[in-house]
Amino acid sequence: MAGLALEGPNPDVDMLDGINGLAKDAPHWVNKAMEYIGEYGIIAGLAVLCLIAWWSARRRPGAPSAVAGLVWAPLAAGIALLANIPIRAFVERPRPFKDHAGLEVLIPGKSDFSFVSDHATLTMAVGVGLFIAHRKYGLIGILLALAEGFCRVYMGVHYPTDVVGGFALGTAVALLLAPLAQALLVPLTTAIGRSPLAWLVRATGVEAADGAVAGGRAGQGAEGSRVVATGAAMPGGHKERDKDLAA
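The line above is the sequence of Phosphatase PAP2 family protein; the predicted structure tokens follow.
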């Protein structure tokens, strides 16, 4: 396939010109910051967000299941990127700067095809995967993915439809394969929780605290049993106590 048609009025190109036009008027340091953020920064931020979510999930009830959901987020991103390989080869859409002169290209030299955006695919898959496991962290992840999409167009390396296609692909993989992923990952994380690597899926401190509470309850139960047993062994206990009070 030779690529998506670009002749005639094209809202995709108009949006590209409008967003990339911001880069033409921006100071050099702003463009350098956008280049770093759009190429590496947001992906690094999502990695940190996944680590924070994992650290929090280890302290939740049903930690192995929660951790399994978080493991799915990066796995979904990897599967989505693999799925994009044949899509790119089929569409064969050139990068926008190859067909449109005058763009402010912040990262020149990219020679691969444009549709769909790998960065948009990866970040949205992680964001949606996080959302399935934890709403708050997932919303942050999805916002970061949207920012990534804007950066790719701003940098002049993707059309808006490349980004939208990446968002759709990442979302589809993360949502549609989530039930199968959970069915496979939950037994795995549960088994890890019973192994010497249990700290990966369950916080040790929380586990000890739970054990202390359980031990306290067991101790209270045992003490109650001793009181009952003592009372049963001394049927005249109440009478003796009454005599002492009367004296």
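Note on the example: Residues 72 and 129 are 6 Å apart (CA to CA). Residues 11-200 form a domain with the Vanadium-containing Chloroperoxidase; domain 1 fold (CATH 1.20.144).
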